[in-house]
Amino acid sequence: MRKLSVANLVLVEASLAGCNPFKAPSYPQIGCGFALETRACVALETRPAVVNILRGDTIRIVTRSDSGYGRATWTVSGLAATFAIVGGAIASQLLTPDTTALVMGIAVGTSEVRAQSTRPPYAATSSIGVGDSSSMTTLSIWYPTARRDTTITLGVEMALVAELRDAQSQSYIVRPIWTSTDASVIAIAPPTCGVCYPRAVTKGYGLARVIAQFRDLRDTLQIFVAP
Questions:
Q1: pLDDT digits (tens, 9 = 90+) for 83-123
Q2: Max Cα–Cα distance, the chain, nearest Å
Q3: Integer Cα distance of 3 and 129 in angstroms
Q4: Which of 4, 20, 25, 115 could form a Cys-Cys staple with 72, CB 3.0–4.6 A?
Q5: How far apart are CA 226 and CA 207, in angstroms?
């Protein structure tokens, strides 16, 4: 599946936005998936820039602007995705400026989502790849190491993240069913405001396995809770 990247912003755009394009200050990025990072100033960008989802699933695309130009109108090109609107409606464009857009995958392929600020006229794009769930071949729980077991202390919570891959090893976002073999050791907590992912919550000492399942695919992570 073809990957597209956000168009590079030229130095003139950064300067006009009131930012120093030659300086890369540190900013605390608080939100889903972002930690402290050092970056150059941008006039407008969309996140995620490239993402793959399953047909029927949705993904929220957000804008970021260092100069306050994040509110944008939205358009989508290609037949793979469309905008999902409250109430079940869909649309190929959103004319009321907003900092987010909810995108739904409707057909296998690739679509481009474009955010356009009206004043000044900055633009940014995200590439949305859409796959079919029946084409997925593996499900993997993401963990920083190759080990399939870990030890954490009582009182610690751990985000649960998994990914699907197809026969071409293309990665897709997935929302699997999460279960624990021993809820008295590890309980599964749903996503909450400000936390993107379900969490493994320690409840007591011992050993438990966390299982992710999607259709007939599954993966397991063994967790030992220590004092």
A1: 998 777 889 999 999 999 999 999 999 999 999 997 778 99
A2: 58
A3: 8
A4: 115
A5: 9
